[in-house]
Amino acid sequence: MDSRLLRVADDPANQIFAVVFFPDRIYHEAYLNATRSPRYRYNVQEVRSYYEVMVLKGQVFLDGGLLSNFIRIEYRGGRLTEMVRTKNRFLRNGCAAWIRLTDLAGNQVQTRDARPLSLHYDDWVNAYQAEVWETLEPPGTTNHDATVLAMMGRDGEITRVPQFTPMLADVKSIGKVELAFREPGRYYPFGNAISENDIAWDNDFGRTHQAPIKADQPSAQENTVQDLNYLLDFQRGWYKQASNVVPVLYRNAMMLGRPDGTFTNPDARPDNIIAMRWLFQRELGGSMIFFHEVTIPPGKVEGNHQHIGSEELYYIVEGEGVAYLRVGDDPAVGDENDARYKTVEREVFGLGTRKFKELPVQPGSMIYTKSGGMHGIRNPPESTKALKFVAFLYHSP
Q1: For 333-357, what is each residue's pLDDT tens digit?
Q2: Domain that holds residue 194
Q3: Concatenated DSSP letters of 89-101
Q4: Residue 53 and residue 165 in one domain
Q5: What would you report as the CA-atom Rg of the chain, rounded to the nearest whole angstrom?
Q6: How far apart are CA 236 and CA 55, in angstroms?
Q7: Is 0.70 surpassed by the pTM of this model?
Q8: Is there a single domain that holds both residue 196 and residue 286?
Q9: Distance of CA 1 to CAs 50, 61, 65, Å?
Q10: Under a CB-based contact definition with an 8 Å cutoff, are residues 31 and 48 in contact?
């Protein structure tokens, strides 16, 4: 980060929002592995984070001279801890990471399946971490400090991955880092080997993304692309025109339409088709999952559903329609006996029927649903134009 931004961080012009030049500890006094010795200095050039994952890339200096380029992985491990506990085990002090690097030219290189990157739990940063350096060799006749040398090695906190070395030679060219995390192959303190098909993984909740591969075929399975990893994208900016993004069609989104099943939704008809333009998905950081534009033609419905572990915001940009919020989710719209808004029974995706408040929406209306909440939205048959809204979805603890 440009040091001049530190001087304007406290400027009254920045204090209006206090977000533009926010002085982030990552760029200043972060505890990185070689900082245990004053002989080493880091130049952290860029940082990206997503949910519990952080990747730093830059340079490390020894005695004032450039020693190596590096990338650093930090992982908080909450999701993997849960996955390990479902197998009646504990994660303890280490885990492993599968990593794939992509440079600006589209070239890719990844860790070998038999040799993932070892991550070590570090109390100072409260995370599992490791640094991959371009080289571990000190220049000339210089020696490493003993405190740092002790951290180096094939499975050390500072390590070298031979297949990454060519790409690390130009660390700025690394544009994308994909990661998935797994428990070690042995369960300690007993040292028992864990079979490959029983190892617990955190692959970003089985992450997928939507792509218009068969965009004209509603709900085609080919439009759901499996990623099974976290993506941290080092691109700094995007310019897009929503109308240039090909929409993907969905039939009976968030509805079950089995005529003889437990859940029978009269809205789940073969012609109930809505369109979604997936504007941003894996490019997003933080805990964001997607930002997309949804178009519901007259007479069509996005079914009522419950969010668990995620939150979503709808912002209406065009048309008029009806949104549904479960009774009690927003006390301001009243209980089931409050006549200001009609109370109706609606089927919830996979859960049977619940009582909802029927709420009119138009451009500028917002529906915000937190984890545990239920919502849905309809464009009435008498409408003369499409109902269009944008939606933000993100993970929540």
Answers
A1: 999 999 999 999 999 998 989 999 9
A2: 31-202
A3: ---TTEEEEEEEE
A4: yes
A5: 25
A6: 15
A7: yes
A8: no
A9: 20, 17, 20
A10: no
